[in-house]
Specification:
alpha/beta; 5-stranded parallel sheet; single chain; 371 residues
């Protein structure tokens, strides 16, 4: 498909090359006669040479073009827009910088340096524009919001304040945990969920792990992402950028949260503390789970199954349906039995809520067991 285009372009490049510096090349090679002094002959010679080179390297060029197309197709529209703007500015700046060299009248320098400057500055402009795209987008969004004012007698739609964060960044742990899908389905999350590319790569790395447990967790995380993308009413976006100078995923997530003015969704205790220290809004799934657990008060009676021994002497351990641990006094005497207990106290810890209780049974069984 591209073969004819490559050959034609190669011929045009060779023709311009021969017309511009062909004569200069022959003179530097100490070849001088009427034949090579003719610029049209030089143009024809170099056009034929470049056509041959183009035909020879056509498979490599076609492969490079296909890879370039795949790379472009993977980019988001925002990246393409800001990248194009950066390239245009870089080419324009390269042309301005190369103007003094055009007056030197040196064939190779006058024709080649402008092209080199334009290519280098175009690449620099693209990288700069893409790496700063979120900052520019936030700048234009805030600038546009400042111009919006409510007409007299009318009420604007709800305005996001300091406590609302449009973008929520998902870290690896909260994706693997899986409860985020149920929370989103219950419509407790609003805004836009953002899955950074470096989080997705870490998830894929875990899914390809040789360890069976890690591999299962990674695949579960990928399934959760597919569920969110297909069944969720909340918009899902992918952030294609990366921070090559930052090795750790959590550090990249923190920098991206600052860049996008976003909140972080996690159940990682350490990441939660680091985000709080750096004034980044955190939505911790574990805190939400603890908040919605049923409240028990001292004196309330529960029916529990004692399943294991506690850490202290004669204690037994039971669990509520939501996973709340109940420490039962003298519970070891009722192992694997359903018994009524009365709550004596409740303790809230960083790991969750812990309830202390004692059996309402008579002491006959305890005394018989001790005898």
């Amino acid at each position: 498909m591209y073969k004819r285009i490559i050959i034609v372009v190669s011929g045009i490049i060779g023709l311009s090359f021969g017309l511009s510096i062909g004569k200069w090349i022959w003179h530097n090679l100490n070849i001088a006669n009427e034949f090579v002094d003719n610029i049209y002959v030089n143009g024809l010679i170099f056009a034929v040479v470049f056509i041959g080179l183009g035909a020879l390297f056509t498979p490599l060029i076609e492969r490079a073009i296909r890879k370039l197309q795949e790379l472009i197709n993977r980019q988001t529209p925002t990246t393409l827009i800001f990248g194009t703007i950066g390239i245009v500015l870089g080419v324009a700046l390269g042309y301005i910088v190369s103007l003094p060299f055009n007056f030197l009248n040196v064939p190779f320098i006058s024709s080649t340096l402008p092209l080199v400057f334009s290519i280098v500055l175009a690449i620099v402009g693209y990288q700069t524009a893409v790496s700063r795209k979120d900052e520019w987008r936030n700048f234009f969004t805030k600038h546009q919001q400042e111009k919006v004012s409510a007409p007299k007698g009318e009420v604007l739609e709800r305005k996001a304040g300091d406590n609302f964060y449009k973008y929520k960044l998902l870290d690896t742990s909260v994706i693997i945990d899986g409860r985020i899908a149920d929370i989103v389905a219950a419509r407790f999350i609003e805004g836009v969920l953002v899955i950074p590319n470096f989080v997705l790569q870490e998830l894929q790395y875990i899914a390809d792990s040789s360890d069976t447990i890690k591999r299962a967790k990674g695949r579960r995380g990928l399934d959760i992402l597919n569920t969110l993308q297909k069944d969720s009413d909340v918009p899902i976006e992918f952030y294609e950028g990366d921070f090559d100078d930052v090795p750790e995923v959590d550090s990249k997530l923190i920098r991206l949260a600052k860049l996008m003015d976003a909140a972080v969704l996690t159940n990682d205790y350490n990441l939660n503390k680091v985000c709080e220290f750096q004034n980044i809004k955190v939505f911790n799934i574990n805190e939400l789970a603890n908040a919605v657990k049923p409240v028990v008060i001292p004196g309330e009676t529960l029916q529990v199954l004692v399943i294991k021994a506690g850490t202290e002497r004669k204690q037994g351990v039971a669990y509520l349906e939501d996973g709340t641990m109940i420490v039962v006094e003298d519970g070891q005497y009722y192992m694997n039995e359903w018994i009524p207990v009365v709550v004596t106290s409740a303790l809230q810890t960083a790991a969750g809520r812990m309830i202390f209780a004692k059996p309402t049974h008579s002491q006959n069984k305890i005394e018989n067991t001790e005898e």
